[in-house]
Design goal:
With 357 residues, the protein is of the alpha/beta class. It has helices spanning 17-20, 25-55, 77-86, 109-118, 128-138, 178-189, 207-221, 233-245, 257-261, 263-272, 282-286, 297-312, 334-339, 346-351, and strands at 62-67, 96-101, 123-127, 144-149, 168-172, 195-200, 224-229, 250-253, 277-279, 291-295, 328-333, 354-356. It folds into 2 domains: 62-173 and 298-319, Rossmann fold (3-Layer(aba) Sandwich), CATH 3.40.50; 178-295 and 327-356, Response regulator (Rossmann fold, 3-Layer(aba) Sandwich).
Length: 357
């Protein structure tokens, strides 16, 4: 009888013990991949908020711009924007400017200044004294940069030109000798005049300072000064009527917002009264006035951008000295001079920055 024998399986080829006890390389590799993927996902998840934070856009500084006149009337705003561009700022991209204009109604300035404070702007640029005073009353902390302010120390805006103190600094528009120079120029083109009217807006807080300077200069030049005031266009008409009745022979028109807005009216009245007139704004001569001598306001607007830049970079207004004007413009309207029967010396024309034919 045949008995089946159990056949033992063939022995496994001899392998070193360390190989038999070690997991398959492919399993190790797969396990390693799983661990790497999990670790990578964790790193990505942890890094995502940091990356998002790093890519968040930087805060754009906000600048308030407060003006008494409409921007259509005071076109020198372009000079301020040009100054910013020269320093690398672009409105709407690297800086945001909040424009506010009283549109020739100064009573609106306090509310507009308060609005800029509520917007939490980083700095306020105020043109002219009325805007600066409104901004000063609205905030004692937000930096204020003023332009076209005649005597910031005399009217109490700053403690001194060298050390303004507080939160206000900027650019003064009238140097002490300007009014005297205006009367001297008027005497030069019309040597026979002796009675000169000065037209001022009593609402302009700086007018007493200008009047004192004019009185001193008039005495030195042997002139009699007649002071007339105008707050409105109708009062301008009345002032020129008074000049005729008082036999004024010339007129010095003080710088203020009303004079700039009503420059065509004033030029026409001076021409009608055959009165040689000197102004502080070149726009008055461009509108038909005889001549203008005063600080280059466009240069001041452009310079105001430098103050804004310094403040945005951490400077304190109290440490930034108030600048006085260094560039003055002499503009003569030759057409008006001929209409008045005045012969302007060639030496005078050679000194002019602009001669309007």
């Amino acid at each position: 009888m045949n008995v089946a024998k159990e056949v033992a399986p063939a022995p496994h080829p001899a392998l070193p013990p360390e190989v038999l006890e070690t997991p398959s390389p492919s399993l190790r590799e797969r396990a390693g991949v799983r661990v790497s993927v999990v670790a990578l996902l964790a790193v990505i998840l942890l890094a995502t908020p940091l990356a998002a934070e790093a890519q968040a856009p930087a805060r754009v500084p906000r600048v308030g711009f407060l003006a008494p006149l409409s921007f259509a009337t005071d076109t020198r705003l372009d000079s301020f924007l040009q100054g910013l561009r020269e320093l690398g700022y672009v409105d709407g991209q690297t800086i945001a400017i909040e424009f506010r204009s009283a549109e020739g109604k100064p009573e609106r300035l306090p509310a507009l200044a308060a609005e800029l404070v509520r917007l939490k702007v980083d700095v306020i640029v105020a043109t002219a004294q009325a805007s600066t005073e409104a901004a000063k009353k609205a905030t004692g902390t937000i930096p204020i940069v003023f332009t076209v302010v005649g005597d910031p120390v005399g009217v109490g805006l700053v403690a001194s030109l060298a050390r303004p103190g507080g939160n206000i600094t900027g650019l003064a528009s009238v140097a002490p000798e300007v009014v005297g120079k205006q009367l001297q120029l008027l005497k030069e083109v019309a040597p026979k005049i002796s009675r000169v009217a000065i037209l001022q807006n009593p609402n302009n807080p700086g007018h007493p300072v200008v009047l004192r300077q004019a009185e001193t200069a008039a005495r030195a030049l042997g002139m009699q000064l007649q002071v007339l005031y105008a707050r409105t266009p109708a009062e301008i008409d009345a002032a020129f009527a008074a000049m005729r009745s008082q036999r004024a022979e010339g007129v010095l028109v003080d710088r203020n917002a009303l004079v700039l807005v009503q420059r065509t009216q004033i030029a026409a009245l001076a021409a009608k009264g055959r009165l040689p007139a000197v102004y502080g704004f070149r726009e008055n001569a461009e509108a038909g006035g005889l001549m203008a001598y005063g600080a280059n306001v466009s240069a001041m607007y452009r310079r105001a951008a430098t103050y804004v830049d310094k403040i945005l970079k951490g400077a304190k207004p109290a440490d930034l000295p108030v600048e006085q004007p260094t560039k003055f413009d002499l503009v003569i309207n030759l057409k008006t001079a001929k209409a008045l029967g005045l012969t302007i010396p060639q030496s005078f024309l050679a000194r002019a920055d602009e001669v309007i034919q």
